[in-house]
Design a protein that fits this description.
Blueprint (H helix, E strand, L loop, with lengths): L11 H15 L11 H8 L3 H13 L3 E4 L3 E4 L3 E5 L6 H7 L4 E12 L2 H6 L8 E11 L2 E11 L16 H9 L5 E10 L2 H7 L6 E10 L5 E10 L3 E8 L2 E9 L6
Antiparallel strand pairs: 1-2, 3-11, 4-5, 5-6, 6-9, 7-8, 8-9, 10-11
Length: 260
């Protein structure tokens, strides 16, 4: 068992918070588990109830636990947290969080870009062929969203031969083709889950959904990727922190496996 040391520079409640947080992230404490009472935690770690309460308050603020009046404090379902202003890779973000990313490839082929796709990727003439990749994105085996991705063939002609069910698409673009994406535009709309998407995501048809469109660019503003995603509305949440004239936006995805 980890111990708390009073002679460290780190406050006691922070040490206790980190101990409990590690137990949650490692799976020792699972979603829905009830935390020991304040008295029990105080006795185990030899700290005051005030210290325990501060530690639990910090965990509540981080979204790792929640309180139920008269019942106690429980471990919340894990959530994917990421800053929208940062260009991200789903796989790399999952690994940073200690989660197991995976993808299930539904379609991987070369097609002629439809008019709207060609316009967003600035394709014309003979360069209208694109790599079409349709994947289900999962974290710890739980489906989070369905992605339809289009990437110009002239930039990476052999992309359809890659195993995109295992690794990161962005890593392949960067490491094999030297395509480093530096910024992107994303738009969000509210829609509903259609029949096919419901079957893939394991939810009911008509469930509210986020419809996300993303166009990512190289440093010289050449568009490389168009991705249209459908994510379950009950698994996706946005938090916006406004400070003066700037905003920090975070996206949280709830992927507790037993929620439907």
């Amino acid at each position: 068992m980890e111990e708390i040391y009073s002679n460290r520079d780190v406050p006691l409640y922070v040490q206790l918070k980190n101990i409990l947080k590690n137990q949650i992230l490692s799976g020792a404490l699972k979603p829905g588990d009830r935390l020991p009472s304040e008295n029990e935690l105080g006795q185990v770690y030899k700290v005051s109830r005030i210290t325990v309460r501060q530690a639990i308050n910090a965990l509540v603020q981080e979204g790792l636990v929640y309180r139920q009046q008269g019942r106690g404090t429980f471990v919340a379902s894990l959530k994917l947290r990421r800053r929208l202003p940062r260009l991200y890779s789903f796989s790399e973000d999952m690994l940073e969080l200690g989660l197991r990313p995976s993808s299930r490839v539904i379609t991987q082929r070369v097609v002629e870009a439809e008019e709207d796709v060609a316009e967003l990727l600035r394709l014309s003439g003979e360069n209208k062929k694109v790599n079409e990749i349709v994947r289900v994105r999962l974290a710890n085996g739980d489906p989070i969203l369905v992605e339809h991705t289009y990437i110009p063939c002239f930039l990476c002609p052999d992309l359809v031969q890659e195993d995109l069910g295992q690794g990161s698409l962005y890593a392949v673009l960067r490491d094999k083709y030297g395509l480093v994406l530096v910024h992107a535009f994303e738009t969000y709309e509210v829609g509903s889950i259609r029949k096919r998407e419901a079957e893939i995501l394991g939810c009911r048809r008509g469930l509210p959904a986020f419809l996300i469109e993303r166009v990512a660019f190289l440093k010289n503003d050449v568009p490389v990727e168009l991705t249209r995603s459908v994510a379950r509305g009950d698994r996706l949440r946005f938090t916006v922190h406004l400070v003066a004239d700037q905003a920090q936006i975070r996206r949280r995805i709830d992927f507790e496996g037993d929620r439907k």
